[in-house]
Amino acid sequence: MRKYLPWLFVLQLCAVRLPAASLGVSPSGFIVHEIAPGRQYDVYRESGVRLTINNGDDSTHTYVLSSHRPSTRGRWEKGYLEIPDPKWCWFDRQEVTVGPHAKGYANLLLKVPDEEKYYNQRWAVTFGIEGKPGPLGIALAIDVRAQIETQSKADGRKSCSRSPTRGRRD
After folding, report:
1. CATH superfamily ID and name for 21-150
2. Among 43-52, 62-71, 112-121, 155-164, where is mean pLDDT lowest?
3. Which of 55, 73, 113, 119 is deepest in the core (most CB within 10 A)?
């Protein structure tokens, strides 16, 4: 046991000197209904929902915002396909800088192309919120999933098509 005491002392010193980090995001997930293909939406203007980034530590941090297909970042809910193109969803800024113990905001915009095949769809998309590395090379990141549901056509077509090459994820 005595031979490990110097190492325990070194570990304790390291632990004391490392700064604490805290990152929170809301909402942690959401659904956007009745999206009309061909129309651009500002989710904040239409619903009051925007991305809020909470920086809970003592340093200012910059976070990079991005959109992804869920298969590149994990799993998604049953009943939803991956969004065909994550570039249909974007934020009003690519980066958000948040001061110590403060909040930063970004508004989500989306536009589904105006094509018949994009009606009656249910898609999942993943938004990445990734901190730029600090002096120690460490950064925090969070993924937020959203579901996008497009408008139905009145002619009674099926409500959600499934591609034979892409199944849903559980």
Report:
1. Immunoglobulins (2.60.40.10)
2. 155-164
3. 55
